[in-house]
Amino acid sequence: MIDLWFILLLIVTGFIAGIINTLAGGGSNLTIPALMVLGMPADVANATNRVGVLLQSCSGIAGFKKHDRLPTHDLPAIIGLTILGGIFGAATALIMSPESLKYVLLGSMIAMAIIMLLAPALIIPEVNTAPNLVSSTRHSWPILFAAGFYGGLIQAGVGFILLLALAGSLRYDLVRANALKLVCTLAFTAASLAIFIYQDLILWQPGLALALGNVVGAWLAVKIAITIEARTMKILILIMTALAAAAVLYFD
Q: Where in the sequence is the domain holding 122, given as residue range(s)?
């Protein structure tokens, strides 16, 4: 039985992470350490965290769909590549040591923070343009697969890689890119969660407590995303990138 204070910690942490994950990415850099505070080893925390990510994605998708901000014409191709990557990523996580997982997380988040801070145009479109189709933008294929792989492997920070593919490569505006990002996250998280459940790596009580906060945070984040200006959204993403990288360094 988990102490009530730990439950409250997970709900609050999940709420903050739900907002961060929906608007940008990196919320798992808060939730995974919170789970490890309970004494979970890194691989169990990494697996248990997916419960909240799955339900948070459902909450965010429902919100974006309600406000007609979820494009669907290119969705099958986008989902297919990320699911495939997610299966390979989750399988790889099962054979990697917790220490190795930590260094992969640290390195990827620092690299993404550098890209976002020094060359944000690679991820965030500077002007409104018509989106490119996956079928005609083949250089997006490895990025989508890599996002799915990384999401299946670790999850933390995968939102930035998805934005690189969806906004940077396919040129969706930030609101629709975030909506598509949640669909991709739902797809590869479902695939990886099934593998982790089979391996009995999920602790359900803390996972569901975290998920409660995640769901409410994602719902609020959709309200924010559809009302603020693109320029403000860009600033928020830059700030969240820096905070996510700082969280990785702090908990290293």
A: 4-251
